[in-house]
Amino acid sequence: MSHVIRRDGESFEALFRRFKKSVQEDRLRSEMKKRRFFEKPSQTRKRKAAAKLRKSRRTTRKMQRQGF
User: Fold this and answer.
1) Does the model's pTM come out above 0.85?
2) Average pLDDT, whole number, for the chain?
3) What is the SS3 assignment for 67?
4) pLDDT band per the 50, 70, 90 thresholds, residue 28
5) Residues 24-52, buried b or exposed e (16+ Cβ, 10 A)?
6) Where are the alpha helices (DSSP H) in the chain?
């Protein structure tokens, strides 16, 4: 769980900005979105396979641009 300690003379806005940044660095929000609904194991496999395919295509395009 992310938490921040208020510094001397720090405004609420600055404190809130630091808190949002720490939450983002902890990837807490993306984890919450992912766990919001149950995902069947087959859906998880499909999602991961699609991500792997996207990454492979991106790498292939990058290599072709460089002339390999």
Assistant:
1) no
2) 92
3) coil
4) confident
5) eeeeeeeeeeeeeeeeeeeeeeeeeeeee
6) 12-25, 28-34, 41-66
